[in-house]
Amino acid sequence: MTRPETTRLVMKFGGTSMGDLERIRRAARIIAAEAAKGKQIAVVVSAMAGKTNELVAWTDGAGQAAAGLPLSDDEYDVVVASGEQVTSGLLALTLRNMGLNARSWMGWQIPILTDDAHGRARIEDVPGDVLGAAVDGGQIAVVPGFQGVTRDGRITTLGRGGSDTSAVAVAAALGAPCDIYTDVDGVYTTDPRIESRARRLEKVSYEEMLEMASLGAKVLQTRSVELAMAKQVPVRVLSSFIEPDENGNLPENAGTLICDEDEIVEKRIVSGVTMSRDEARITLLGLADRTDAPADVFTRLAEANVNVDMIVQSQARTEGAVNLTFTTGRRDAQRAAEMMTAAKAEIGFEELRIDADVAKISVIGVGMRSHAGVAQTMFRALADKGVKFQAISTSEIKISVLIEDAYSELAVRALHAAYGLDAL
Length: 424
Description:
Layout: E1 8-13, H1 21-35, E2 40-45, H2 51-62, H3 73-80, H4 82-97, E3 102-104, E4 113-114, E5 123-125, H5 129-136, E6 140-144, E7 147-149, E8 155-157, H6 162-174, E9 178-182, E10 203-205, H7 206-214, H8 222-231, E11 235-239, E12 256-259, E13 272-276, E14 280-288, H9 293-303, E15 308-315, E16 321-328, H10 330-342, H11 344-347, E17 351-355, E18 358-364, H12 374-384, E19 389-395, E20 398-404, H13 408-418
Parallel strand pairs: 1-2, 1-9, 2-6, 3-6, 9-11, 10-12
Antiparallel strand pairs: 4-5, 7-8, 11-12, 13-18, 14-16, 14-17, 15-16, 18-20, 19-20
Helix pairs in contact: 1-4, 6-8, 7-8, 12-13
């Protein structure tokens, strides 16, 4: 798939890009440069960096609803969604001061329709007719990200990183590509703060980006990539710190295009190495070797909305028992451990251990489908550095290993070199 032939464009600016009035002015200059090319533009914005945390703290300080009253998640959303309303208005004001026709559109005015899961709502529909008519008429529409509205008119928020999802949803509704401006200038082969020889990728497939986002890369929110892939929205990641030149032009071939795999002519075996330290390992020692025991464990975890990733079962020292190890996010680990301990008798295990000093290292690439030896290269590179792995999980286009956290950065650098990513 190639980028659609359209003059419509959706641009998204994150919290760092909206951090203060000077940064909002820089974003406005970037928008003006695109408008000067004849683009019909909708802009999606985040709240100022740190503002959402402040608003969440205020709601925490206000306290919970009294006994007998429903939870206040709906009012939480009213407060927390206000950060994006402020930046929408400020950006529209700034654009008008530059002589551009701009207007802010709240989520309920478009509308961005969501379910009623307040604080973590999912977008159900974004009718594009009204917004499309506005941008086609020459108006720059400024839309607050992160927020939507239920079908009965209550404000919702989409969860952390939800502005990326808002931008992709608006782009899908308008049949437009989506440019996401952030504090990095694209998607890299690994975190440049860990490996100075990391390289910016010109193109990444939806599937690769989805794996990267879910495995520790913080460039885009996972749900936004899922939506872009489902709706075939081309997404470009760019730096918001670029400036148009004296002719109003932005740099050519800037950023990273996230697109369909077929649009990438040369398939790399491995495109990137990611690291996630938000991991914890839980082991149930002496679990009864019943065929339904693992099902019992993971059913309980699923009912408590605890996401599990790597799973390893091994023979226990006790006859008729096994050891079951699984990983989950650190925030969920203590809750999962407490739940397992409370049901120890029903589940039937001897001891529970939890280890948060672990990290997940992953290599990702669509070329894995057609090349042998990817795993061998990974394990040899780790062995040469004396790094032991504790668990493994794989998919068609990724291999992940769980290792001691102390070796995480060493492992990233070793794998980056082993796959030749510093030579791209």
